[in-house]
Amino acid sequence: MRLEFQKRCCPKFAPASENYGLAKEPSVKDVAIAGILGDQQAALVGQTCFEAGEAKNTYGTGCFLLMNTGTRKVDSKSGLLTTMAYKLGDGPAHYALEGSIAITGALVQWVRDNLGLIEKSSDIEKLARTVDDNGGVYFVPAFSGLYAPYWKDKRPRRNHRLDSLRQQGHIARAALEATAFQTRDVLEAMEKDSGINLDVLRTDGGMVNDDLLMQFQADILDRPVVRPVTKDATTALGAAYAAGLAVGYFKNLKDLRANWGG
Q1: Do the Cβ atoms of 98 and 80 come closer than 8 Å?
Q2: The whole model's pTM is what?
Q3: What is the DSSP string of 39-54?
Q4: Segment 22-48, tens digit of pLDDT
């Protein structure tokens, strides 16, 4: 049986910033419900990426990179997803290109739990700094396949023996660099699809506290990488921004940009 696509079956796209009603739960009774955004879309708003070509990357267990393409819907030909970013009040809908990376912070956890080289994830920077470079060691963390921009669900497992010249620091450094290399792959795909050269990459998430990783990321991108003051709650901040606009706490996007701190 052939099923015909029916547009009326799709949900209505509602504004992310609008007063939808009041909460009834006693602890938040009569508080307006006014900010509605998906996880990564909220982080994009929290990073005040409101212009076409502005992008953010969330560094967590995986990495999630979104680039605002403005009111232009860009159909990716480079292995990315085209997503609705946000619609604030009566303003136009904005779109984004999205690239998800499966294994980033999870690789650091793997080094901790399976190799036993560090006691806690944050120790990896100190270990990585014991060497000047990766010593020719590279990780391709395709434990669950490769996500954007490759979308390879199965990769053959290949183990290459390390010689005696390689140190634990080389492995730690390679684990961090794998995150930066994968991010560059996604960013280059975004620039190819959108035709926009990114000026600055805004970042958030737990891994951005790693100075070595952030510096290496900036080096291989050859452009600034900026960390906000609020590193670990950017998603919540974006929802708060949307709600604040809806109830008049913030007047406009200029207010939001003024509130953002890098």
Answers
A1: yes
A2: 0.89
A3: HHHHHHHHTT--STT-
A4: 999 999 899 999 999 999 999 999 999
